[in-house]
Design goal:
alpha/beta
């Protein structure tokens, strides 16, 4: 049965027009909210090593903050440790290389400072500077 016909099978252009308008508005709103292509990509630099559970929780909060600001967070240190062994030097270096590749496609780098900057954070900041990607430093005071 055609989409714009009534129950008796006759053409119903009024209902068809109304449904088309509602769907057009719905899709436009969905595009506006979820269109990731138009969101700035923000690379998240924060601690991972040390107290991994606390640092992972904090990184997730930083990502949420970035989303709330209307941007898209990229947090490689939340992704790669899920399947790469951080205890293995080779796998850690691979994860770092993957992360720096993601950093290169980002619009900005946000550094979330909670005490000292780790060697991994320093490496990411240096790469952002080398690529001339703007670096923003924030102290969110979470833990």
């Amino acid at each position: 049965m055609c989409r714009h016909k009534n129950i008796e099978g006759y053409s119903d252009p009024t209902a068809g027009t109304a449904v088309s308008r509602v769907m057009k508005e719905y899709n436009a709103e969905k595009q506006r909210i979820f269109n990731a292509k138009n969101r700035k990509k923000i690379y998240v630099v924060s601690k991972y090593a040390g107290n991994i559970s606390v640092n992972t929780k904090n990184a997730a909060q930083y990502c949420r903050y970035i989303i709330d600001q209307g941007f898209m967070p990229i947090a490689s240190h939340l992704l790669y440790p899920q399947f790469l062994n951080d205890e293995s030097k080779e796998e850690r270096e691979l994860g770092t290389a993957f992360g720096l590749s993601l950093l290169a496609i980002c619009d900005e780098v946000w550094v979330f400072i909670d005490g000292q900057i780790s060697s991994g954070m320093k490496q990411e900041i240096e790469e952002a500077n080398r690529l001339k990607i703007p670096v923003k430093r924030l102290n969110m005071g979470v833990s």
